[in-house]
Amino acid sequence: MTRRLIQTLGVIVATVLGSVAAQAHPHVWITAKSQLIYAPDGTITGVRHAWTFDDMFSTYALQGIESKTKGVYTRDELKPLAQTNVESLKEYAFFTFAKAGAAGSQKKEKFSDPVDYYLDYKDSALTLHFTLPFKTPFKTQALAVEVFDPSYFIDFKLHEKDPVTLVGAPPNCKLAFQRPTDGSAQAQTMNEQTFLNGDNSNYGAMFANKITVDCP
Fold first, then answer.
1. Which residue in 53, 67, 165, 194 has a CA-CA distance of 20 to 30 Å to 17?
2. Cβ(154)–Cβ(28) under 8 Å?
């Protein structure tokens, strides 16, 4: 028996693999909303996320967190957990991948550390809010942003209502987004040991939420 510890958003989740490898499927589910933020001069400055965790993960994450009112958690009470979460996100590139430019000549854009982050708790679910500033704000006619976990440990699902919005973008910019096709049945046929190695190490990209902005 081997043990693989996966640190996901500040909470250590222990996954025990026996003689028969565990099936490859998500262990944490996140419903996501995102905003692409522009400056008055038309440069894009960052991406703002709001990620709502499933109730089971939320309950697990809240273990040991004290609150004045049972079942109610304020932002101040959740502040240490929020800080731990955003600090741990860096190891996973914040599960957010951005490229600027037209297809075939795209440039990967890097993010600085998250800012304006906090957690809130409502309807038995934690929501992590944070902003990822680009290291260097830039102008581009075409921008592509993908949100996914390469290991498919976390399943990201765009919110049903207004999942992506532009904030301060030039009026000619057009936003589009694409949800991943349902490949869960295929994922379950692959064990964790397999898809975390070799050619399958980026298996989660099949489940990427894709956001594109065109500013002609």
1. 53
2. yes
Q: How far is CA 64 from CA 25, 51, 67, 73, in A?
A: 28, 21, 10, 12
**Nearest 5°: phi and psi at 75?**
-60, -35
Query: Can you list the residues of the chain whose pLDDT is less than 70?
Result: 1-25, 181-203
What pLDDT is recorded for position 21?
34
Task: With beta carbons less than 8 A apart as the criterion, state whether 141 and 120 touch.
Answer: no
Residue 23 confidence (pLDDT): 46
pLDDT, tens digit (0-9, with 9 covering 90-100), for 76-90: 999 999 999 999 888
CA–CA dist 177, 193 (Å, integer): 31
What is the per-residue pLDDT for 13? 36
- Domain assignments of the chain as residue spans, ordered by start: 23-214
Q: Amino acid identity of 101?
A: G
The number of helices, as runs of H, and strands, as runs of E, in the chain is: 4, 13
Give the separation between CA 140 and CA 142, rounded to whole angstroms: 5
Alpha helices in the chain (DSSP H): 55-61, 75-89, 184-188, 192-195
CA distance 155 to 176: 20
